[in-house]
């Protein structure tokens, strides 16, 4: 579902990714582990087309997306949950979730939205509440819902457990565990392996922009 080959990316002239190779098979959940500054977010942003790579390849569902603009990912069923959530504070929960569809000019898939509310009833209960009124953990759930409204095949979750209270971290673990049974391919990054240990089928470690596979995916 996702493969990067010798991916290289820079920020402000400083090279961050150094020949990063990663493979995520369909229906699998894979962890990308690394300390702060190791290159996790740069990798995610490069895959999503938010940062133009200096070299290498990005293949999504077998299609070369290396030079394609960011908005093309949503049409391919790819959802992205950034580390800092990036919600619009004045928008309601539902408006934030539907934002990718509105940006693309696509019709609202009510059945998909209802499925998200069933998956995470806690955000369904305050669908009309403005995002600025939510806690940080609740905002994480909304950001996940926004990723899911278009992410029918592949999800990129950047530090989903960062800065979240233990109870909400456990809730996120439960939700991501359910997604494994939905056939989604999931790449999640984390600074350590604490929360994702029981979620992932495979594990990669990133250090100074270089990625090393540490555990084979299960069959």
From TrEMBL:
SMART domains: AAA (SM00382). The keyword ATP-binding applies. Residues 2-218 form the ABC transporter domain. Keywords: Amino-acid transport, ATP-binding, Nucleotide-binding, Transport. Signal peptide: none annotated. It comes from the Bacteria. PROSITE patterns: ABC_TRANSPORTER_1 (PS00211), ABC_TRANSPORTER_2 (PS50893). The keyword ATP-binding applies. Transmembrane segments: none annotated. Pfam families: ABC_tran. GO terms for molecular function: ATP binding; ATP hydrolysis activity; branched-chain amino acid transmembrane transporter activity. GO terms for biological process: L-amino acid transport. Belongs to the ABC transporter superfamily. This is High-affinity branched-chain amino acid transport ATP-binding protein LivF. It comes from Palleronia abyssalis.
């Amino acid at each position: 579902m996702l493969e990067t080959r010798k991916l290289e990316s820079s920020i402000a002239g400083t090279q961050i990714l150094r020949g990063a190779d990663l493979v995520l098979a369909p229906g699998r959940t894979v962890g990308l582990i690394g300390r702060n500054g190791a290159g996790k977010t740069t990798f995610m942003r490069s895959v999503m087309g938010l940062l133009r790579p200096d070299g290498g390849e990005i293949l999504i569902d077998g299609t070369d997306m290396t030079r394609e603009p960011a908005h093309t990912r949503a049409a391919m069923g790819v959802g992205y949950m950034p580390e800092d959530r990036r919600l619009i504070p004045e928008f309601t929960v539902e408006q934030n979730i539907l934002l990718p569809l509105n940006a693309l000019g696509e019709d609202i898939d009510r059945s998909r939205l209802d499925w998200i509310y069933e998956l995470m009833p806690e955000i369904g209960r305050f669908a009309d509440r403005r995002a600025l009124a939510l806690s940080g953990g609740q905002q994480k759930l909304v950001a996940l819902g926004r990723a899911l409204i278009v992410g029918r095949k592949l999800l990129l979750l950047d530090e989903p457990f960062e800065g979240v209270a233990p109870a909400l971290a456990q809730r996120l673990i439960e939700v991501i565990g359910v997604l494994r049974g939905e056939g989604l391919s999931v790449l999640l990054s984390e600074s350590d392996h604490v929360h994702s240990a029981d979620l992932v089928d495979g594990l990669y470690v990133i250090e100074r922009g270089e990625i090393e596979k540490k555990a084979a995916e299960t069959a």
